[in-house]
Design a protein that fits this description.
It is built from ten helices and 15 strands. With 320 residues, it is α+β, with helices and mostly antiparallel strands. The structure holds pyridoxal-5'-phosphate. Pyridoxal-5'-phosphate (PLP) binds at residues 57, 178, 204, 207-209, 228, 230-233, 271-273.
């Protein structure tokens, strides 16, 4: 196959899912492209063949990226944890992400930022890569349907070994356990699979945190030990302070949560960038928490959504 044929073949490859992609910056190209067939990453980038990279997924709503700072803070922390230097200053990264969102042209979109070890060969040795890579992808935003919030969703307890400690705390491109959680949920007909830590305690979902309101009206989140600390769960806890003051919640704490705590809970909910706050009402075919969404999840969802739309201190200025 000659060069022209190869390029032609790449252009013509059927990729129906790529209709979701709006724009991408690639440090390989040194620019932003909007043609999905150009949105690729070299196979010798260690992010591809070793998962040696870190990433963030943020959402832009009504033209503003929500919680952009906390997401970039976590990206910096993840990169520092694996001794990966960000290829741009924080300010340059922000400016570039904004330019990709603008190129995508959609006020509601997902913005994913990947910092890779970079191309350099095929061993595990990170020192064979001269320069980190940077890829920013903007795509359509899909939130769960209203029905999921009105009726609640179903979870199941997974038996996939979870990441723990250090590896759980880094948002690296090494997401195999998370992928297997998602796969298990799909195969078993659950909406989400929840992983357990090595002690058999509740950890988190594939890309979401979990919280429980116990019978005493206390909102409990797992200890931040064997999970990725979510920007949504953190913001929800800040917003829940108001509910504490108003007597809508009796307490708010991190504590170990067991599977039987889930069975006995007054409410169970999931937190995540695309979900906001999503009530859980079934577990492996059985009703959970009375089988319908409870008042705390409903109120928290309302407060988070209000924060997204109206609290401009938590978002970037309008970009699109
Ligand atoms: C493993 C894991 N846990 C939790 C979360 C939720 O984090 P956030 O609320 O920042 O989306 C994510 C999301 O990316 C994740 O990948």
């Amino acid at each position: 196959m000659n060069e022209d044929q190869a390029v032609q073949r790449l252009k013509e490859l059927p990729r129906p899912w790529a209709a979701e992609y709006l724009a991408m910056y690639s440090s390989q190209l040194g620019g932003i492209v909007t043609e999905p067939w150009l949105m690729s990453v070299p196979i010798d980038d260690h992010m591809v063949h070793r998962g040696d990279g870190v990433f963030e997924a943020t959402k832009c709503v009504a033209g503003r990226i929500y919680q952009f700072r906390p997401h970039l803070d976590r990206l910096s922390r993840s990169a520092a944890s694996i001794q990966l230097e960000l290829p741009l200053s924080r300010n340059e990264l922000e400016v570039l992400a904004v330019a990709v969102v603008r190129a995508g042209g959609e006020p509601d979109c997902m913005v994913r930022i990947y910092v890779s070890r970079g191309p350099g060969g095929f061993t595990t040795n990170p020192f064979e890569c001269p320069k980190p890579g940077l890829y920013i992808v903007v795509s359509h935003l899909h939130s769960p349907p209203n029905k999921a919030y009105d009726l609640g969703v179903q979870i199941g307890i997974s038996h996939v070994p979870s990441k723990s400690g250090f590896f759980a705390s880094v948002k690296s491109c090494n997401y195999l356990p998370n992928v297997l959680l998602k796969r298990e949920a799909a195969v078993k007909g659950w909406d989400f699979a929840i992983g357990l830590d090595e002690q058999g305690l509740i950890a988190e979902g594939s890309t979401e945190n979990i919280g429980v309101v116990n019978r005493d009206g206390v909102l409990c989140l797992p200890l931040p030990v064997n999970i990725l600390e979510g920007t949504t769960a953190r913001r929800a806890q800040e917003l829940a302070q108001g509910m504490l003051r108003e007597g809508l919640l009796k307490g708010l704490e991190h504590r170990p949560i067991s599977v039987s705590d889930l069975h006995e809970a007054a409410e169970v909910m999931l937190f995540g960038t695309t979900l906001d706050v999503l009530p859980v009402t079934r577990m492996e075919g059985e009703p959970l928490a009375g089988g319908k969404p409870g008042p705390v999840a409903k109120e928290l969802l309302e407060r988070v959504r209000k924060d997204i739309l109206h609290n401009h201190a938590m978002s970037t200025p309008a970009l699109v």
